[in-house]
Amino acid sequence: MNKKIEEKESVVVVKNVSKSFKLPTESSTSLRTTLVNRMKGIKGFKKQSVLKDISFNVEKGDFFGIVGRNGSGKSTLLKIISQIYVPETGTVSINGRLVSFIELGVGFNPELTGRENVYLNGAMLGFSAKEVDDMYGDIVSFSELHEFMDQKLKNYSSGMQVRLAFAVAIQAKSDILVLDEILAVGDEAFQRKSREFFEEIKRDVNKTVILVTHDMNAVQRYCNKVIYIKDGILEKSENLQDITNQYSEDNLENYESHVVTGKAPAKDKAKIWIEKKSNSVLSNSDKLFEFEVHYELYDEKLKKETPLYIAYALHDEKRGGIVFDSGSIAVDSSELRASIPLENFHNTDFKIIASLRKDPKIVNEENPNETDMITFTKEGHDARFILRDIEDKEDYGLLREI
Predict the structure, then answer these.
(1) Residue ranges in the chain whose pLDDT is less than 70
(2) 214: helix, coil or strand?
(3) 3-class secondary-structure state, position 295
(4) How high is the pLDDT of residue 58?
(5) Could you tell me which residues come within 8 angstroms of residue 33 by beta carbon, excluding any fewer than 6 positions away?
(6) Which of 171, 149, 174, 169 is nearest to 160 (CA)?
(7) What do the Gene Ontology cellular component annotations say (predicted)?
(8) Rounded Cα–Cα distance for residues 379 and 382 (Å)
(9) What's residue 42's pLDDT?
(10) What pLDDT is attached to residue 105?
């Protein structure tokens, strides 16, 4: 006998929402100029469409992600959901108590103490003094600022202010929590504590979170649903893995589309670049990233050098540093096909750089394998890719245990 599937309650319903802004193109200080411009059809502004017919539902208990590049309209959408902006067309229905934290520390007064700022911020969010009393202990405990709460906020370090603002944001007793790019705050220990809190809130079926972020690892860690807004349009709203991959690929394509191609400047003796043979986003960490390194020589003397060498290195773009180095590889043609196994890495963003090298004029007896660099990959001639395994819940950029 089939059990009836219980239908979840919708707590945020966005239906056919559009929003545009008028951007001034000129200023006029006289009535005559304004009238003349109007008669000529010059309005003095242009209309910028930010959101175009956006519709989606957020259900109770969702950890709902909204992703998109800068300028895509996602922050405008959050402000409409938070009732800061009014949609030009369409409707937004909210079922529950919504607390929005679009910018950390908005409404804090540097002349007031930490304690007074907590109560001030609570009042701005619509909480009574009694409700803030009930939340106060949790806020102070989470921020770990017990001994500083009676000091003026202007005497706090920037890190302390961020911790207090973030604690107010996530400890507010609300049904729906709206967050805009505020996950990575504080030092490493505080970030770890924050991640543990979000893991806990993710399991709360009565708590709904709407998160705007550029961090696809955070989306995969916390979100059960995600939408992708591109140029004000709801681009995709299907599988979470597909959306995060598509977002990352679009970002890489945008970066690569601005790369200057062509022959190297005359002063350069050679040019070296990397051509990707694998996808820009890899979903399974047991795959290889395959690529080719190519070079071209412009100096006649170099063409007589033999042998020439290619060296490539894998950089972790999130944490920094080189995590793999090929060493110098002798080549007898103008290209080298190579691959790097990824099973030992957690999710992160990578960049591969390469250099063209030759034997040194003076041999280093202590390091006979040392080579001299001729040129290296310029910005845009490197290869960037992302490892994003949805089953991998560990922090980005760390080596797996082997």
Answers:
(1) 1-7, 23-34, 36-38, 40-45, 103-106, 182-186, 236-238, 253-267, 284-286, 363-368, 390-402
(2) coil
(3) strand
(4) 95
(5) none
(6) 149
(7) membrane
(8) 6
(9) 61
(10) 64
Query: Is 211 found in the same domain as 64?
Result: yes
For position 275, what pLDDT does the model report? 93
If asked whether residues 238 and 284 sit together in one domain, one would say no
Tell me, what's the pLDDT at 75? 86
Same domain, 225 and 275: no
Distance CA 210, CA 372 (A): 53
Both 145 and 222 in one domain: the answer is yes
The dihedral built from the CA positions of residue 239, 240, 245 and 248, taken in this order, carries a sign that is positive
Q: At what angle do helices 158-171 and 114-124 cross, to 10 degrees?
A: 40
pLDDT at 28: 58
In angstroms, rounded to a whole number, what is the distance separating the alpha carbons of residues 10 and 61? 10
Nearest-CA neighbor of 164 among 182, 177, 180, 188?
A: 182
What's the sign of the alpha-carbon dihedral 186, 190, 195, 199?
negative
DSSP 378: P
What is the domain-level CATH number for residue 371?
Answer: 2.60.40.1930
191: domain range? 10-15+51-253
Q: How many Cα atoms occupy the beta-carbon half-sphere of 104 within 13 Å?
A: 18
- Residue 12 makes CB contacts below 8 A (sequence gap 6+) with 57, 58, 64, 81, 92, 93, 94, 95, 98, 176, 208, 210
pLDDT at 398: 40
Structural domains in the chain (count): 2
Residue 251 backbone phi and psi in degrees, to 5 = -65, -45
131: Cβ–Cβ under 8 A, 6 or more apart, which residues? 122, 173
